[in-house]
Structure formats: structure tokens, C-alpha cells
Design a protein that fits this description.
With 484 residues, the protein is α/β, with parallel strands linked by helices. Helix content is 40%, strand content 22%. The longest helix has 25 residues, at 97-121. Keywords: NAD, Oxidoreductase.
Length: 484
């Protein structure tokens, strides 16, 4: 069987990489190579950046209504093709197809629609100095911007960046993860069908080393919106330090979940399990450090284990599957290594702990049991390092202050969830936890208008809603004095 070759999308055309180099693209559920991803080089990159540069004057002067029309057409096409896109995402990433359809693909269309509308409503501020002068603030697009995205929510996080970048009049060179390139490739075809002008969006495939790093330091790139690991974020910061580019870095997490005795018990068990294990724990927002008030610790952990043990684990392509495969063999090995470490550090497995041997089509897949570890202190590596897989720890706390200090005892600061019916307590703690996103009695509930991002090693800058519109534009104040 000949393998499907993914193509770059440069200047409005699907193109093969110039020197013909490809990487194997594995299906995580089977371990088999099913497609080839371009390992593009700097010549491909030059074509993409030049195309974006040439497209910038016309696109940046396109009326908002027209940009909105094209973007809405793209969102419509995502919806028309939602089943195919969800299937592609499940094959490429290993995530359950139902999750792909209801979260990844649904939200990809929603992102594009949101920013299509936002650009028609975005207006600049003015500041009157009574009868002396008026200031108004221009918000101009930046030029050619880079959008670099990871493998865990491939199309969703891709559109998370390119939708606001395009809506504000920038042109884009985007690099999806080389591990999950398929949905971005299919998306390129939809861009052509939607009539997005050539060069406005260019999608270039390849590794971080061959394309990611050269893209970030390219002198024509004015801003970088990056989602990925904290170490990669640091490299980008260092590599671009003397170039004065605008940077938005959405990085890793090691998110605390705080469960109080007065929570709505049954619902909290279900949601805390979902927060820890959705997408096999491969969401930067997953709650992987679970802190439980001591009076309910035993009952809650037992119920959590029971909840996790009844998850339907299996072929990502089956509608009933709730828990699929990890994204790659190296990632699976990393996660299994952490499970080993957790035990060396003195942790006890309450459930899980091993690779799962599957039957039939999925026999060679990268499946790891959802794993819950107890008995570890906060300071051990298992509780300090991002595992980014189906592994969480449980610990007991006695007081609100102790819960906050355990939550904040981390290099990361992305998200926290708090489960209690005492809303005053939730409000008090929400102010005290050091992270960019706090969910109270919910997790991953998203309003696209809200600021999204983290503190400390979880990144700098915010995207989402107005924050994204601001990131992708340069404010320029114009002060006009009236005739004295
Ligand atoms: N904060 C968030 O919103 C958020 C969302 C999703 C994932 N993440 C984080 O992403 C990580 C998992 O994703 P990953 O393994 O794909 O991350 P990664 O950092 O390895 O890769 C992310 C992207 O950056 C590219 N890249 C790699 N090295 C580069 C370099 N030197 N310069 C420029 N680009 C480079 C990759 O090819 C990929 O496209 C986890 O740490 C997770 O927490 C964060
Ligand atoms: O893995 C990271 C998940 C990011 C999610 C979002 O950006 C979002 O929910 O908007």
C-alpha cells in the first residue's frame, strides 16, 4: 500500500517539500506508519515567508466584513467535514473519535467563527483631553507572524492561533506538530475551497529543529505565538532575545485540583476523573495533582479509582471509546518511565501502572492504563515534573491554607480547579492560587472571550478573546492637538 503524502500549503498551493524528505507518521492506536510528513527545509520556509510577506499589504487592508466572510466560510467547511476531520484526528493522535468530534473539531470551527465576528466588532480607543487634544489608538496588524502548535489538540490549537492572527489582518506561516500533521493538511484544502487569498496562510510541515527554530528566528517574522513544552518556550525566548519580536508562550502545566469535603461528591468524582484523564491526560490543563480534604480522602480516592476503572479504553475509532492511545512510542516510554519513578519515590499505585496489551487491530498501539498514585510528597519529581499522560497523584490536606500552599508549590502556573459548595471559600482561594486559569466546580468550561494562558514556567502573555486581538496588533497612539 502506498503511504499518503502530506503536503505543505504555500502561496495558496499544496506543494511537496523541495528536497523530497519525509518523516514517518505513525497511527498511535496500531503503531503502524500510515502517512508521510514533509521534513521541509529552509528553502521551503523561505517560500512560505515570502508568500506571506507578499500577501500582507492586500490582506491587512481587506475590510473586516470581507475577512469575516472568508473565515466564516472556513468554519462552515470544518462543520461540513466534521466527521472526516474527527476521524483523521483520532487516527493521527490516538484520541477517542467522540472527543475529537465534540471538542477538537467543534472548537476549531468555533474559534474561527468567534474571531471572524470579533474583527467586525473590534474598535480602537480614544482619549479626549477635553478641548486641548484627542488621542486615538491605532491597532495595526504586525505583518508576517509565526504560529507554532503542539500535537495534543492538533487542529484546535492550530486554529486557536491562526484565527485571531488572520482576523486582525496579519499573514501567517504556521507550523503544526510533525507528530500530528494530518488535520492541518486537510485544513489547507478547506482554505483553498473557502477562497482564502493565496499567501495569507502558509502551512509548513517539519520538525522543530528543521523548521520550528529557523521560523522563529527568521528576520521577517514579527511575532511568535507558540504552544508547546516549557523547554521549547525557553529555547524560543533565548534564540529570539536580540530580535525584539512579540512573543506569546503557552507552555506546560502541572495543575492542582482542590477537592473539599463540602463538594457535590458524585459530580466532583466524575469531573475530577475527566480533568485528570481526558485525552489520556495529554491536555496542558489536565489536573494531575489532586489534593483532597482529609475527612473525605479515603472515600473520594476509592470513588475516583472506581470511576477511572470503568472508563471504556480501546480503539480510538469506536464511538464508545472514552480513553485511547498515547501519541507516540517515545511519549509512551516517557510516561511509563514516570510511573516507574513514582514507585521508586515511594508511591503506591491505586490503579493502573502498566502498558495495556490490546487485541486485534490495536495490538501494536501505545496504550497505557489510567494510573493513580498515592503516598508521595509534594517535593518529589513525580509531583513537580510535567508527565503529560494518564498519571495523577492524590494527597490529603487539612486546611484551606495548606491546600493553597500545596497547589502553589510548583514551577508551573497554568490552571487550577476548586471543588466546594462554599462559594466564598472558592473566591478566596481563586485569588490566592498562582495560575492563569481557575475553574470552580467545573473543568475545561470555555468562554472564548476570556484570557487564556499561564504564569511561571507555564508561559507568558495571554491569548483568547480581546487578549489575542491585542497580541496580534501593535497599538499606536496618535495625539492631535486642537488649535489653541
Ligand atoms: N499552555 C497551553 O496552552 C498548552 C497547550 C497544549 C500543550 N501545551 C504543552 O505542550 C507540550 C506538549 O506538546 P509538544 O510535545 O508538541 O511540545 P514541543 O514543545 O515539543 O513542540 C511544540 C511545537 O514546537 C515545535 N518546536 C520544537 N522545537 C522547536 C524550536 N526549538 N523552535 C521552534 N519550534 C519548535 C514542534 O515541532 C511543535 O510544532 C506539553 O508541555 C504541554 O503542556 C501547552
Ligand atoms: O493542551 C492545552 C489545551 C489548551 C486549550 C485551549 O487553548 C482552550 O481550551 O482554549
Amino acid at each position: 500500500m502506498s503511504l499518503k503524502k502530506i503536503q505543505n500549503y504555500i502561496n495558496g498551493v499544496l506543494t511537496d517539500p523541495i528536497d523530497g524528505h519525509y518523516l514517518d507518521n505513525h497511527e498511535p492506536a496500531t503503531g503502524l506508519v500510515y502517512a508521510l510528513t514533509p521534513e521541509s527545509n529552509e528553502q521551503d520556509l523561505k517560500l512560505a515567508v515570502d508568500a506571506a510577506e507578499q500577501a500582507f499589504p492586500a490582506w491587512s487592508n481587506t475590510p473586516a466584513e470581507h475577512k469575516a466572510k472568508v473565515l466564516n466560510r472556513l468554519a462552515d467547511l470544518i462543520e461540513v467535514h466534521q466527521n472526516d476531520l474527527a476521524k483523521a484526528e483520532a487516527i493521527d493522535n490516538g484520541k477517542p473519535i467522540t472527543l475529537a468530534k465534540n471538542v477538537d473539531i467543534y472548537r476549531a470551527a468555533a474559534n474561527i467563527r468567534f474571531f471572524a465576528q470579533a474583527c467586525t466588532q473590534y474598535s480602537s480607543e480614544s482619549h479626549s483631553m477635553e478641548n486641548v487634544a484627542i488621542n486615538y489608538t491605532l491597532r495595526d496588524p504586525l505583518g508576517v507572524v509565526a504560529c507554532i502548535s503542539p500535537w495534543n489538540l492538533p487542529l484546535y490549537l492550530f486554529t486557536w492561533k491562526i484565527a485571531p492572527a488572520l482576523a486582525t489582518g496579519n499573514t501567517v506561516v504556521a507550523k503544526p506538530s510533525e507528530i500530528t500533521p494530518m488535520s492541518a493538511y486537510l485544513f489547507a484544502k478547506l482554505c483553498i475551497e473557502a477562497g482564502l487569498p493565496a499567501g495569507v496562510l502558509n502551512i509548513i510541515h517539519g520538525t522543530g529543529q528543521s523548521i520550528g527554530a529557523p521560523l522563529t528566528i527568521h528576520p521577517k517574522i514579527k511575532a511568535i505565538s507558540f504552544t508547546g513544552g516549557s523547554n521549547t518556550g525557553t529555547s524560543i525566548k533565548q534564540a529570539t532575545a536580540n530580535q525584539h519580536k512579540k512573543l506569546s508562550l503557552e507552555l506546560g502545566g502541572k495543575n492542582p485540583t482542590l477537592v473539599f469535603a463540602d463538594c457535590d461528591f458524585e459530580r466532583t468524582v466524575k469531573e475530577v476523573a475527566r480533568a485528570a484523564f481526558a485525552n489520556q491526560g495529554q491536555i496542558c490543563l489536565c489536573g494531575s495533582r489532586i489534593y483532597i480534604e482529609r475527612s473525605i480522602y479515603q472515600r473520594f480516592t476509592q470513588a475516583l479509582v472506581a470511576e477511572v476503572n470503568q472508563l471504556t479504553i480501546g480503539d480510538p475509532l469506536l464511538a464508545e471509546t472514552q480513553f485511547g492511545a498515547l501519541v507516540s512510542q517515545p511519549h509512551m516510554e516517557k510516561v511509563l518511565g514516570y510511573i516507574e519513578l513514582a514507585q521508586q519515590e515511594g508511591g503506591q499505585l491505586l490503579t493502573g501502572g502498566s502498558q495495556l496489551e490490546m487485541q486485534g487491530r490495536c495490538a501494536g498501539g501505545y496504550f497505557v492504563q489510567p494510573t493513580i498514585v498515592a503516598g508521595l510528597s509534594n517535593s518529589c519529581r513525580t509531583n513537580q515534573e510535567e508527565i503529560f499522560g494518564p498519571v495523577c497523584t492524590v494527597q490529603a490536606f487539612d486546611t484551606d491554607d495548606q491546600a493553597v500552599s500545596m497547589a502553589n508549590d510548583s514551577a508551573y502556573g497554568l490552571a487550577c480547579s476548586i471543588w466546594s459548595q462554599d462559594i466564598s471559600r472558592c473566591h478566596r482561594l481563586a485569588k490566592k492560587v498562582n495560575c492563569g486559569i481557575v475553574w470552580v466546580n467545573c473543568w475545561l468550561l470555555r468562554d472564548l472571550r476570556t484570557p487564556f494562558g499561564g504564569m511561571k514556567a507555564s508561559g507568558s502573555g495571554r491569548e483568547g478573546g480581546l487578549e489575542a486581538m491585542r497580541f496580534f496588533t501593535e497599538p499606536k497612539n496618535v495625539c492631535i492637538q486642537f488649535n489653541p
